[in-house]
Amino acid sequence: MQTSPDRHEYPAHWEADVVLRDGGTARIRPITVDDADRLVSFYEQVSDESKYYRFFAPYPRLSAKDVHRFTHHDFVDRVGLAATVGGEFIATVRYDRIGADGTPASAPADEAEVAFLVQDAHQGRGVASALLEHIGAVARERGIRRFAAEVLPANTKMIKVFTDAGYTQKRSFEDGVVRLEFDLEPTDRSLAVQYAREHRAEARSVQRLLAPGSVAVIGAGRTPGGVGRSVLGNIRDAGFTGRLYAVNKALPDGQKELDGVPAHRSVRDIDGPVDLAVVAVPAEQVTEVVTECGEHGVQGLVVVSAGYAESGPEGRERQRALVRHARTYGMRIIGPNAFGIINTSSEVRLNASLAPEVPRPGRIGLFAQSGAIGIALLSRLHRRGGGVTGVTGVSTFVSSGNRADVSGNDVLQYWYEDPDTDVVLMYLESIGNPRKFTRLARRTAAAKPLVVVQGARHAAAPQGHAVRATRLPHETVSALLRQAGVIRVDTITELVDAGLLLARQPLPPGPRVAILGNSESLGLLTYDACLAEGLRPHPPQDLTTAASAADFHAALSRALADDRCDAVVVTAIPAVGEGSVGDAALAEALRSASAAAPGKPVLVVHVELGGLAEALSAAASTAPQTGSAETPQSTGTPQSTRHRVSSAKWDERPQNAPGATPAGDHLPATDAPEGAHLIPAYPAAERAVRALGQAVAYAQWRRDAADPGKVPEYEDIGEKGAAALIDGLLARGQGLTLGTEETCDLLGHYGVQVHRALPAPTPDAAAEAARTLGYPVALKATAPHLRHRADLGGVRLDLADEDQLRRSYAELTELFGAPEELRPVVQRMAPRGVDVVVRAVIDPAAGAVLSFGLAGAASQLLGDTAHRLIPVTDREASSLVRSIRTAPLLFGWRGSAPADTRALEELLLRVSRLVDDHPEVVAVTLEPVVVASHGLSVLGASVRLAPPPARDDLGPRTLPAY
């Protein structure tokens, strides 16, 4: 592209797509000599006022010299970037490196002047802010550390761009010009500003897709049937509140309608704007459709057409071309191969999907990468029966298909502050950007529950998904998601079970569970299930099979009033005989008692009681109620503000009141008073208790997240000394595993002392090493197949003198081979304790991860290892130690002496600091670490250094590259 003899090749890696403040997209790329005509055309569309602000004088047109200067760059000392839409410039930015005297300079000068120009029609869209992020990243790459900008005082918009960026700044005023100087090193504030802008832009881009004012279905067939015609009918039948159009290029001349919808042969023929286009044409025709949509100003696409990356390499390339083409026009895409989107809001009523029925309006946001799983989830949430019963509605639904563009991260940005969504359920088959997803999930979970089930856990991601490589096993990723507050479940059934509880009931204040019901056996099963989930159940209260509705009401009221109870599980079986409690009466009794104490969750376990399950849900459908509107919810406390005491009394309802309506029917207003309390019902104790256990853990995470702790400072840490040592070691090569002495030196800078291990290639060398270290000693084989495998017999401990040492040496060589194969070492004995392993690794996708577990084959076999993202706080280090299943061994199990867990937590924090301070430390292993009653001993350590992997979360905002 660049044809002049420039000092550097065209930097293609600077090209990026970005989402702007209004939800549209733009392409940012370097300006080259081929852009002369584009630059002139762009400048002609800029107002005289904007030109004056840029050049401080009237400047009606660019001279040939100007055009040459602004299009010829060396990509080092002179760089220009342009933001483009539809291939045309909408804004430009450039920097010129300057010396201390303000004249043009080259490296090592580290300051540059920067200047912007944005077309008036695109001002206010956040284009300049995005360009500043990208030109700043380019400058840092080229060794520039500081920008200077001169701005006229009247140019308040540009001054605001600079001052709002969050960088450390200096401001001066001289000769009628404001001079701004700011460092380009990212700060906590600049990153916060960047994340906030990213959130607003991505949330807005999804909002434009889910709440369009007009929709065109392109590919609506002339005859009934087919994908496009089905989607058109679904949108129409749902009562979409905006304008709807059918588009089919094969329509005969003169046909103006299709199924009562205005019809056109091309989207260009539509008189008026089109916000959203649903594309349902064969894949080979999509490119033409995208061009027409882009030229007509369509804002977004839902591509249900198949034949893309899911079909193989040729389809993958077709998918990349589709995304690039759509972004050229500033459009975002859901799909391709998407099932569609749904918005049940009364202000929108959009069903741009293949679902023949719209789910009932409610407060659950639903995301599924798979169309088939999306259908299953919608069906389970819609029906009343066959498992978790009752009516719980959906606010919005997105099925992303191949998620070539819009992903779960984008939808999380939208749901985070969506007032119509209280609970988020997600089915994910892949996580394209785990680092970003974890950050967004943590923020979302602090405001509303986020429940995730991940498919393809033991296989590669689906063909259509672009996924970053990760070395972390699925269990580690799951642990990191739980650390971020995500409620991780394993099945679709558990996803719905947990979602219904969280959508209907308040969060439990603790793990103490009361159990009551009319079946002793079912109560005992529930009690055992609670223990298995780590809850603290009270002994079950058996009301006997003769219990009446009044008995259930009284027992539940007492349990909810008990300060020692945090949640109640009610068990119920069918009663036989005259005077037995009816389903409707029992449901009303439970609802009334629960509504009187709305701060604690209530769950029901029922056995073959369809009537009871439906009666329980009949209290408060999330469907629209006659004569009332749904109360807006606060995202901070979605459960506690929603439930109100029902005005009906349980003992005033007739015993023969209707207990159920057919599945899918809307409930009459008299059966569903506004704000009434729904009680979720489960067909098995294990499912109910598992959902409750997940809610308890999430509630505890919310309380802990309010005070996450801090990363402590240690006065003996030598960060500068460690940095100098690392720089010197990396000068040898791109990546290396440190030797023993180098490892000890580096860890020593962070206060981690490693016990010396002296090589013992001969018995005499072993004896000499023991005399140097002092008895008692240990003799260890360090060959790869024996290292850290005490169970194989390659270790001899507590050798008190030279005779024992020589006998042990002879035994090892007789059992395992010659010393050169065994690689024996001698190490001074450490105090007895519990052997643990500490590891840290930098994963290219997830970031830096700290892991902890007990040493030994048993823990490895069980996978009993805990993980936290680095940097780790003091509270996180404490929870890390306590989160493994074998943790009781550290706390005096079976009368043993408790280990010094405070020293262990400090070690974890020091390793976390080392990796966080020096990203060149890509792997650390401390094995074994013996934690005694007082103090600990690090007996083995290894460190690997490498150039740090790129941190895309610290760079400018970009969409995934295609």
Q: How many E-type strands?
A: 39
Biggest sheet layout: 8 strands, mixed
Low-confidence stretches: 1-6, 384-390, 619-675
Rounded radius of gyration (Å): 33 Å
What's the overall geometry?
Answer: flat
Q: How is the largest sheet built, in terms of strand order?
A: 1-2-3-4-5-6-8-7
Q: Calculate the terminal CA-CA distance, rounded to whole Å.
A: 19 Å
Strand content: 15-25%
Number of helices: 27
What's the rounded overall pLDDT mean? Answer: 86
Q: Helix- and strand-based class?
A: alpha/beta
Helix content: 25-40%
Structure, described:
- With about 950 residues, the chain is an alpha/beta fold.
- The chain contains 27 helices and 39 strands.
- The chain has an 8-stranded mixed sheet with strand order 1-2-3-4-5-6-8-7, with helices on both faces.
- Helix 14 packs across helix 19 (about 685-705) and helix 16 runs parallel beside helix 17.
Name a few traits of the molecule.
single chain; 27 helices; 962 residues; seven-stranded mixed sheet; alpha/beta; disordered N terminus
Give a brief rundown of this model:
The chain has 962 residues and is α/β, with parallel strands linked by helices. It is built from 27 helices and 39 strands.
Outline the fold blueprint.
Blueprint: E1 16-19, E2 25-30, H1 36-44, H2 48-55, H3 64-71, E3 78-85, E4 88-98, E5 111-118, H4 127-141, E6 146-151, H5 156-163, E7 169-174, E8 177-183, H6 188-210, E9 214-218, H7 227-237, E10 243-247, E11 257-258, E12 261-264, E13 276-279, H8 283-296, E14 300-303, H9 313-328, E15 332-334, E16 340-343, E17 350-353, E18 361-368, H10 371-382, E19 394-399, H11 408-416, E20 423-428, H12 434-445, E21 450-454, H13 474-483, E22 487-489, H14 492-504, E23 512-517, H15 520-532, E24 536-537, E25 541-542, H16 549-561, E26 567-572, H17 583-595, E27 602-606, H18 610-617, E28 681-682, H19 685-705, H20 719-730, E29 736-737, H21 740-748, E30 757-759, H22 763-773, E31 777-781, E32 795-799, H23 802-816, H24 819-822, E33 824-828, E34 834-843, E35 847-854, H25 857-862, E36 865-869, H26 874-882, H27 901-917, E37 921-931, E38 936-938, E39 941-945
Parallel strand pairs: 5-6, 9-10, 9-13, 10-12, 13-14, 14-15, 18-19, 18-20, 20-21, 21-22, 23-24, 23-25, 23-26, 26-27, 27-28
Antiparallel strand pairs: 1-2, 2-3, 3-4, 4-5, 6-8, 7-8, 11-12, 16-17, 16-19, 29-39, 30-33, 31-32, 31-33, 34-35, 34-37, 35-36, 37-38, 37-39
